[in-house]
């Protein structure tokens, strides 16, 4: 078994779901996942934000606001809609995940904004199956600001996905913030009861806010939840989903070390440094903080033809 630290593009291309999960676990908290938004204009114009994140050291690319019915990744060479994920994987040599949102209510529709949900972002079985057919490796059940995703809705969706697609997709679940549900804010974003419910429903990975990114989510609280998730055989993602991916590098370094101490298997940086991607220097800073320059530069330098 290879650690994800040692994997090249050809390794990722040949990996099963279980092999990728084992590779992440084997890296002992040194996996970076970067979220990007493909419908926004890329920071580099004709280079996708996902490619930019990969170039700065991301191991896993997570696409937010990706509509599987109308797939758009700005900066991607002209590609048939059904092939955009495979094209992105060919250009970056990275596993790709997408967010799907099991919204019980669309709170954002009362005050339309950039996060307002579209049909191809909803966590339906049809959308997840379409994502798998497009080459997506992981689906994260979560909610953007104001969408109205509850943990109950996540559990109900997980049960369907495990039964129908659990052999094809890594299933991750959790919230980076309250997603408009104030009763599930702060320490109530994720509880031990939620972790157990997610595990019973079929999750492979649980996601929780990184310490210091949401009020009430301390290092101690995150460490307790992650230890419990590990005891159930789950991996854990700590997420920076409150725009602190656009903070100064000293703040990013502090969050990174707290997440490492808490036991995170995967370290997530969100998509709104300015808009569409974390600040590139913060991706690199985070990576160096949790795995040093050797592994960071190796990931940055490796050719996709390896």
How would you describe this structure to a colleague?
This protein has 306 residues and is α/β, with parallel strands linked by helices. It has a single domain, classed as Alpha-Beta Barrel (TIM Barrel), CATH 3.20.20.60. It is 38% helix and 13% strand. The protein has helices at residues 9-14, 17-26, 49-55, 84-92, 125-134, 151-165, 192-201, 219-231, 249-262, 280-301, and strands spanning 31-37, 60-64, 96-100, 138-141, 170-174, 205-209, 235-240, 266-269. The chain has an 8-stranded parallel barrel with strand order 1-2-3-4-5-6-7-8, surrounded by 9 helices. Helix 5 (125-134) crosses helix 6 and helix 6 packs parallel to helix 7 (192-201). Mean pLDDT is 93; it is low at 106-111.
Question: Keywords for this structure?
Answer:
single chain, 306 residues, alpha/beta, TIM Barrel
What's a concise summary of this model?
The protein is α/β, with parallel strands linked by helices and 306 residues long. Mean pLDDT is 93; it is low at 106-111. It has helices at 9-14, 17-26, 49-55, 84-92, 125-134, 151-165, 192-201, 219-231, 249-262, 280-301, and strands spanning 31-37, 60-64, 96-100, 138-141, 170-174, 205-209, 235-240, 266-269.
Classify the fold: give the CATH topology.
TIM Barrel
Strand content: 5-15%
SS class: alpha/beta
Q: State the order of secondary-structure elements, H for helix, E for strand.
A: HHEHEHEHEHEHEHEHEH
CATH class: Alpha Beta
Average pLDDT metric? 93
Please count the beta strands (DSSP E, at least 2 residues each).
8
Q: Trace the largest sheet across and list its strands.
A: 1-2-3-4-5-6-7-8
CATH arch. level architecture: Alpha-Beta Barrel
Under CATH, the homologous superfamily reads Phosphoenolpyruvate-binding domains
């Amino acid at each position: 078994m290879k650690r994800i630290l040692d994997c090249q593009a050809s390794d990722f291309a040949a990996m099963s779901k279980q092999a990728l999960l084992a590779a992440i676990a084997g890296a002992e908290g040194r996996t970076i996942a970067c979220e990007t938004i493909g419908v926004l204009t890329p920071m580099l114009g004709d280079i996708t934000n996902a490619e930019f994140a990969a170039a700065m050291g991301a191991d896993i690319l997570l696409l937010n606001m990706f509509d599987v019915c109308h797939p758009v990744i700005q900066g991607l060479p002209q590609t048939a809609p059904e092939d955009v994920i495979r094209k992105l994987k060919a250009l970056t040599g990275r596993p790709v995940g997408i967010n799907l949102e099991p919204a019980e209510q669309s709170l954002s529709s009362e005050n339309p904004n950039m996060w307002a949900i579209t049909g191809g972002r909803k966590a339906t079985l049809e959308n997840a199956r379409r994502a798998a057919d497009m080459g997506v490796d992981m689906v994260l059940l979560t909610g953007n600001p104001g969408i109205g995703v509850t943990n109950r809705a996540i559990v109900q969706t997980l049960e369907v996905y495990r039964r129908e697609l659990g052999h094809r997709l890594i299933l991750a679940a959790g919230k980076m913030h309250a997603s408009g549900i104030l009763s599930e804010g702060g320490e109530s974003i994720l509880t031990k009861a939620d972790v157990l419910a997610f595990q019973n429903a079929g999750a492979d990975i649980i996601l929780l806010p990184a310490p210091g990114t949401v009020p009430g989510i301390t290092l101690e609280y995150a460490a307790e939840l992650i230890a419990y998730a590990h005891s159930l055989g789950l991996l854990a993602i700590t997420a920076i989903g409150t725009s602190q991916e656009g903070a100064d590098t000293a703040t990013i370094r502090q969050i990174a070390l707290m997440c490492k101490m808490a036991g995170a298997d995967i370290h997530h940086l969100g998509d709104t440094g300015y808009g569409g991607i974390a600040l590139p220097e913060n991706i690199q800073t985070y990576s160096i903080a949790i795995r040093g320059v050797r592994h960071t530069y190796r990931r940055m330098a490796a050719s996709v033809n390896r």
